[in-house]
Amino acid sequence: MDYLDLIKQLHIQNDSKIILLVLDGLGGLPATPKGRTALEAAHSPNLDALTARGICAMSTPVAPGVTPGSGPGHAALFGYDPIKHLIGRGVLEALGIGFDLQPNDVAARGNFCTLDENGLITDRRAGRIPTAIGEKMVEKLRTITLPGVEIFVEPVKEYRFVVVMRGEGLADGLTETDPQMVGKAPLPIKALRPQAEYTAKLFNRWMSKARQALAGEHPANGCNLRGLAQDPGLPKMDEIYGWKAGAIATYPMYRGIAKLVGMDVLPTGDSISSEVETLKKHWHEYDFFFFHVKKTDSYGEDGNFDGRVHIIEETDALLPEILSLKPDVILVTGDHSTPAKLKSHSWHELPVLLWADHIRADDVTTFGERACMHGGLGHRYHVELLPLAMGYAGRLAKFGA
Amino acid sequence: MDYLDLIKQLHIQNDSKIILLVLDGLGGLPATPKGRTALEAAHSPNLDALTARGICAMSTPVAPGVTPGSGPGHAALFGYDPIKHLIGRGVLEALGIGFDLQPNDVAARGNFCTLDENGLITDRRAGRIPTAIGEKMVEKLRTITLPGVEIFVEPVKEYRFVVVMRGEGLADGLTETDPQMVGKAPLPIKALRPQAEYTAKLFNRWMSKARQALAGEHPANGCNLRGLAQDPGLPKMDEIYGWKAGAIATYPMYRGIAKLVGMDVLPTGDSISSEVETLKKHWHEYDFFFFHVKKTDSYGEDGNFDGRVHIIEETDALLPEILSLKPDVILVTGDHSTPAKLKSHSWHELPVLLWADHIRADDVTTFGERACMHGGLGHRYHVELLPLAMGYAGRLAKFGA
Q1: Beta carbons of A360 and B348 less than 8 Å apart
Q2: Coil, strand or helix: which one is A276?
């Protein structure tokens, strides 16, 4: 029996409300060795006041040294072992564009590429064609039909697109076509398990038709498919936690991941303040809220330290409105670190702030990476956070007599 | 290979003496947000002096957020994965009244209930009949006999009792009769594995005879059986740790759990000072002593903060006598938290104090929840504590070349 099974067995229901406030990519690094991180530099009196009344931790999303993608980072935050419950790239890509993925759909991330006269790849990204050209190429691919399945092709950005097959008998467990180097032809897709044979055949036929459809084009006269995958069938939150969960997120990918674990995705606007309005509007309908702030991550990816500071300050300014709803438990953290210094996700631990009624307040009085190293909860893993919140919410029965 | 298998493989014997001093339910909460816990409020100069020379930790009994019962709390303290090695409720109940449970006995917790004329439950606790009435009803149940098994029925308290069956071919893996709601009849017991079919049949026959035996009574004219279980067959301490272990505990349940893991249960009186006398008397006979102080938990359950303070101070005053025996390693902690504020067990971590010869003393100088958050051993799990003590006692051989 693993940890989630235990939680599933012990969960009880009550009237408590729990908020998981995720500032995406929250963990940062100081720009200079003696400098401050964005979170440390931000003027965040409300987060600091909550910290003074709460208990803190540093938390590892997946494993020490491992940099998580958005999928594993969120799966871990939601309590699912991110190594055991991997969300395929094709699925994340489809969710990322807001595609309404169905449980048995097989989704693949597509990359346009350039092929020479022998069908060998000369450019794996087709010269990074602009989005407008990518969209035109997608139109060509949309002409492809195959008996027994419905096929969706959707543009993403530049040379990237998504292909989804829908129909009876589809299964994942498939290899990719991308040989990961130039000078080779796209590889045939192979089934990694018997029940995926039929799906492999379909995708190989699609690849061959795609080559015909793109034959006259340049530079995008070919394509590769990666991360062919189905909805991983994660156990749903109501089953594990026994709660009704609502997701408030402005970006499609996070709305999609929330949907995969059975949350209701609540309509909201583009700003954090509109997300707060959504929270207020639906406050009485849900037990648990996943509240996602995206741009701490986006600015991190852009190397925009000040942008991160600004988003943290914007969130801080809205915190009193959130707290005025009187949640029983609030957790503030991120899915992973995205230091502006690195312009990418990173492996670093990130700070966690927990407030609830029956906590032992620790000595930490400001919410920041270095302050939280001394947090009273010590060093944790993301998968422990929601079960911990469950305990504080009185939502776990005593284990054993 | 799991952790205990490793310990089993590496253990060596020497003359060292180890004391595990368990203040049951030690972890607490401040009564007010800025206040102190019972342990923080207690005047405990001897524990503090030992803390100054020792190293501290905060420890999670089972898993973050999970509130342990006494069974899992102690199993974990004794080094047994409490999720893997669950001690059934019937077994704990039998041990709790000092019943001399044999390895193949099947024990069940019984609750008297009230049934209407259709056999449907109208009160799951039979109006919480006083203990004297419960005892009279137990006399009725003692008249029940079944071929091939010896049956014991023992009163516990109020509406609670214990039934134990002893004989050839018994097995656990059985459902309970309690439908957990009124308006339903007690459920038939089902076998969850083939070898328990015979036992299920016996208990169902017993239930039917019990109904006849209680038919004329009121309000206890029926009963339910819960937590039907056998001794879980935990590997014994001498096998795992290679030591001779003595248990000093005033309450039957803890004596019983100690017996399940192969400790000798030493005769002792009701007070902590009589437990210290027992420790002294048997000091040369054992390698490891489990020394259990019960009332920190009892007062916690009662919401009696001052009672907890008093028991901690009483234990503290006796600590010099314990230390005068010159143990090589002493661990002071609890099985779980029982904050007076909550009047129940809780999920919170609890403080651990380890003293031994070769420790690196940390900066903690007072034994308390918040002080131990900064302990040099960090945040631990209960199952790690005895192996750690083994290391300090020189009782674990080098692993690998």
Answers
A1: yes
A2: helix
What CA–CA distance (Å, rounded) separates B125 from B122? 9
Residue B398 confidence (pLDDT) above 90: yes
Put simply, the answer to whether A392 touches B65 (Cβ < 8 Å) is yes
Strand pairing class (B329-333; B350-356): antiparallel
Q: Touching check for B83 and chain A: CB below 8 Å?
A: yes
d(CA B63, CA A253): 31
DSSP string for residues in A285-318: G-SEEEEEE-HHHHHHHTT-HHHHHHHHHHHHHH
**pLDDT tens for residues B240-290?**
999 999 999 999 999 999 999 999 999 999 999 999 999 999 999 999 999
**pTM value?**
0.93
Q: Does A369 touch chain B (CB under 8 A)?
A: no
Q: What is the pLDDT of residues A315-362, one digit of tens each?
A: 999 999 999 999 999 999 999 999 999 999 999 999 999 999 999 999
Q: Is B241 strand, coil or helix?
A: helix
Q: CA–CA separation, B176 vs B200, rounded Å?
A: 10
Is beta strand B245-248 parallel, antiparallel or unpaired with respect to B264-265?
A: parallel
Average pLDDT, chain A: 97
Contacts of B72 in chain A (CB under 8 A): 399-400
Q: Which residues, 6 or more positions from B154, have their beta carbon under 8 angstroms from its beta carbon?
A: B94, B97, B99, B138, B161, B162, B164
Say yes or no: B200 contacts chain A, CB-CB below 8 A. no
Q: What is the ipTM of this complex?
A: 0.92
Chain A residues touching residue B342 (CB < 8 angstroms): 358
**Per-residue pLDDT, A400:** 92
Q: Are B368 and B23 in contact (CB under 8 A)?
A: no
Compute the distance between CA of residue A202 and CA of residue A200 in angstroms, rounded to an integer. 5
**A283 pLDDT above the threshold of 70:** yes
